[in-house]
Design a protein that fits this description.
Layout lengths: L1 H15 L2 H16 L3 H63 L6 H12 L2 H13 L3 H13 L3 H16 L3 H15 L2 H26 L3
Helix pairs in contact: 1-7, 2-3, 2-8, 2-9, 3-5, 3-6, 3-7, 3-8, 3-9, 6-7
Length: 217
């Protein structure tokens, strides 16, 4: 068991420097930069994102262990479609709020900005859950292997956690910190508007990709 745990952790390291970096990086980096977090808050955002993603891995590994991969697709297929659609819509809204910056005049929009961007731990956790529940194809094979070979539900959780912890040790942390530094420079009025528009546009694009994907789940 220990050998499997170590192997899955190192496999997670390789995923964190590869597929996970490519799939999660643009969203988290754009969000951190667009919300002007700075270095310290950027690191906090990264850990919230990572551990909420690990939670999603634990759930998926356990579900596959209990139902098998075929049953997972049958039982949760419709759920994934709805979740993908809602996640995409949520991300588009976040992108629009970031792109708008401080130019929102409507009270509802201002309240949404306060709730989702300024007090944003839940927003970042939602990003992490979405990244874990809507994994890239290489990850599906790993979580399927974990769920189908664990032999016990507790082992499934341990294996999923080991792999997820490996993915959290990623170069993405350095990129997020760099985004926090850049956001401080862009906080100057001359950069602020353009920078927010760019970050917001990237997030909106990623959300639209999820919306499109929801019709093909």
């Amino acid at each position: 068991m220990i050998k499997i745990v170590i192997s899955l952790f190192f496999l997670g390291l390789s995923f964190g420097a590869g597929p996970c970096l490519a799939s999660c990086g643009p969203l988290l980096i754009s969000y951190v930069a667009g919300t002007q977090k700075g270095v310290t808050k950027s690191i906090g955002a990264y850990f919230i994102f990572s551990f909420s993603r690990i939670l999603a891995y634990l759930v998926l590994g356990l579900v596959i262990f209990l139902f098998s991969q075929a049953m997972l697709k049958y039982v949760l297929g419709r759920f994934f479609q709805y979740f993908t659609f809602l996640a995409g819509l949520f991300i588009v809204i976040i992108g629009l709020l970031i792109a708008a910056g401080n130019n929102l005049n409507y009270k509802l929009c201002q309240k949404m900005q306060d709730l989702l961007l300024k007090k944003d731990a839940l927003t970042i956790a939602t990003f992490g859950l979405a990244a874990g529940i809507l994994p890239c194809p290489p990850f599906i094979s790993v979580v399927s292997y974990i769920g189908l070979t664990a032999g016990h539900w507790l082992k499934s959780l341990v294996y999923s956690f080991a792999f997820g912890l490996g993915t959290a040790v990623s170069p993405l942390l350095l990129l997020v910190v760099f985004a926090g530094l850049i956001s401080k420079i862009s906080a100057k009025p001359v950069f602020y508007r353009v920078f927010n528009l760019i970050c917001g546009a990237i997030i909106i694009f990623l959300g639209l990709q999820l919306l499109r994907r929801s019709f093909h789940v």
